[in-house]
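Entry 12.
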Amino acid sequence: MNGGDQLLVTWAEPIFKDPNRCSELADPLVEGNFPRKSLNQAVGVAAMCLHEDPSTRPLTSDVVTALSYLWVLPDEEVVSPVAFIGTTNEIDMDDEQDKLDAQERQEALAEAIQWGSTNSRTVD
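Predicted 3D structure (C-alpha coordinates):
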Protein backbone atom coordinates (compact mmCIF):
# COMPACT_ATOMS: atom_id res chain seq x y z
CA MET A 1 0.00 0.00 0.00
CA ASN A 2 1.07 3.54 -0.66
CA GLY A 3 1.27 6.03 2.19
CA GLY A 4 -2.07 7.57 1.15
CA ASP A 5 -3.85 4.23 0.92
CA GLN A 6 -5.83 2.82 3.79
CA LEU A 7 -8.00 -0.18 4.42
CA LEU A 8 -11.70 0.24 3.75
CA VAL A 9 -12.46 -0.96 7.26
CA THR A 10 -10.12 1.61 8.79
CA TRP A 11 -11.70 4.38 6.73
CA ALA A 12 -15.33 3.34 7.41
CA GLU A 13 -15.05 2.42 11.09
CA PRO A 14 -15.43 5.97 12.52
CA ILE A 15 -18.37 6.59 10.21
CA PHE A 16 -20.14 3.46 11.46
CA LYS A 17 -19.84 4.78 15.00
CA ASP A 18 -21.48 8.13 14.17
CA PRO A 19 -24.98 7.84 12.63
CA ASN A 20 -24.83 11.49 11.54
CA ARG A 21 -21.98 10.62 9.17
CA CYS A 22 -23.66 7.74 7.33
CA SER A 23 -24.26 9.87 4.24
CA GLU A 24 -20.47 9.95 3.73
CA LEU A 25 -20.72 6.29 2.73
CA ALA A 26 -23.22 6.94 -0.07
CA ASP A 27 -22.16 7.19 -3.69
CA PRO A 28 -21.68 10.92 -4.38
CA LEU A 29 -23.19 10.43 -7.84
CA VAL A 30 -26.65 9.91 -6.32
CA GLU A 31 -26.36 13.43 -4.89
CA GLY A 32 -28.30 12.67 -1.73
CA ASN A 33 -31.27 11.31 -3.68
CA PHE A 34 -31.95 8.29 -1.47
CA PRO A 35 -34.03 7.46 1.60
CA ARG A 36 -31.90 8.31 4.65
CA LYS A 37 -33.39 5.48 6.70
CA SER A 38 -32.55 2.98 3.97
CA LEU A 39 -28.98 4.23 3.91
CA ASN A 40 -28.71 3.88 7.68
CA GLN A 41 -30.00 0.32 7.48
CA ALA A 42 -27.60 -0.52 4.63
CA VAL A 43 -24.74 0.90 6.70
CA GLY A 44 -25.80 -1.36 9.57
CA VAL A 45 -25.63 -4.37 7.27
CA ALA A 46 -22.20 -3.24 6.03
CA ALA A 47 -20.98 -2.92 9.61
CA MET A 48 -22.04 -6.51 10.26
CA CYS A 49 -20.03 -7.63 7.22
CA LEU A 50 -16.89 -5.94 8.52
CA HIS A 51 -17.00 -7.49 11.98
CA GLU A 52 -13.52 -8.47 13.12
CA ASP A 53 -14.50 -12.07 13.93
CA PRO A 54 -15.35 -13.80 10.62
CA SER A 55 -17.56 -16.35 12.37
CA THR A 56 -19.97 -13.60 13.43
CA ARG A 57 -20.31 -12.04 9.97
CA PRO A 58 -23.60 -12.70 8.15
CA LEU A 59 -23.83 -15.06 5.20
CA THR A 60 -23.92 -13.41 1.79
CA SER A 61 -27.45 -14.72 1.30
CA ASP A 62 -28.53 -12.97 4.52
CA VAL A 63 -26.96 -9.72 3.33
CA VAL A 64 -28.74 -9.99 -0.02
CA THR A 65 -32.05 -10.65 1.73
CA ALA A 66 -31.66 -7.70 4.07
CA LEU A 67 -30.60 -5.30 1.32
CA SER A 68 -33.32 -6.46 -1.07
CA TYR A 69 -35.93 -4.83 1.17
CA LEU A 70 -34.20 -1.46 1.19
CA TRP A 71 -34.18 -0.43 -2.45
CA VAL A 72 -37.88 -0.63 -3.30
CA LEU A 73 -39.61 1.58 -0.75
CA PRO A 74 -39.90 5.36 -0.55
CA ASP A 75 -38.38 7.01 2.53
CA GLU A 76 -41.61 7.45 4.45
CA GLU A 77 -42.34 3.73 4.20
CA VAL A 78 -38.90 2.52 5.31
CA VAL A 79 -39.03 2.33 9.07
CA SER A 80 -37.30 -0.95 9.67
CA PRO A 81 -37.01 -4.28 7.89
CA VAL A 82 -38.98 -5.66 10.83
CA ALA A 83 -42.04 -4.02 9.30
CA PHE A 84 -41.94 -6.63 6.56
CA ILE A 85 -42.22 -9.54 8.95
CA GLY A 86 -45.66 -11.08 8.79
CA THR A 87 -46.84 -9.15 5.73
CA THR A 88 -46.82 -12.06 3.29
CA ASN A 89 -50.62 -11.96 2.97
CA GLU A 90 -50.47 -8.32 1.88
CA ILE A 91 -48.14 -9.10 -1.03
CA ASP A 92 -49.84 -10.03 -4.32
CA MET A 93 -48.67 -13.62 -4.84
CA ASP A 94 -49.70 -15.74 -7.81
CA ASP A 95 -48.96 -19.16 -6.38
CA GLU A 96 -48.18 -20.99 -3.18
CA GLN A 97 -44.44 -21.30 -3.93
CA ASP A 98 -44.10 -17.52 -4.20
CA LYS A 99 -45.77 -17.20 -0.80
CA LEU A 100 -43.38 -19.75 0.71
CA ASP A 101 -40.36 -18.01 -0.82
CA ALA A 102 -41.52 -14.65 0.54
CA GLN A 103 -42.05 -16.16 3.99
CA GLU A 104 -38.55 -17.67 3.94
CA ARG A 105 -37.07 -14.29 2.96
CA GLN A 106 -38.97 -12.61 5.78
CA GLU A 107 -37.76 -15.18 8.29
CA ALA A 108 -34.18 -14.82 7.06
CA LEU A 109 -34.45 -11.06 7.37
CA ALA A 110 -35.79 -11.37 10.91
CA GLU A 111 -32.81 -13.59 11.77
CA ALA A 112 -30.40 -11.08 10.22
CA ILE A 113 -31.98 -8.26 12.19
CA GLN A 114 -31.77 -10.25 15.42
CA TRP A 115 -28.19 -11.21 14.65
CA GLY A 116 -27.30 -7.61 13.87
CA SER A 117 -28.82 -6.27 17.05
CA THR A 118 -26.78 -8.66 19.19
CA ASN A 119 -23.51 -8.92 17.26
CA SER A 120 -22.75 -6.00 14.99
CA ARG A 121 -22.97 -2.87 17.07
CA THR A 122 -19.57 -3.40 18.64
CA VAL A 123 -17.12 -2.23 15.98
CA ASP A 124 -13.89 -1.92 17.95
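Annotation: Residues 75-93, 119-124 have pLDDT under 50 and may be disordered. The longest helix spans residues 96-119.
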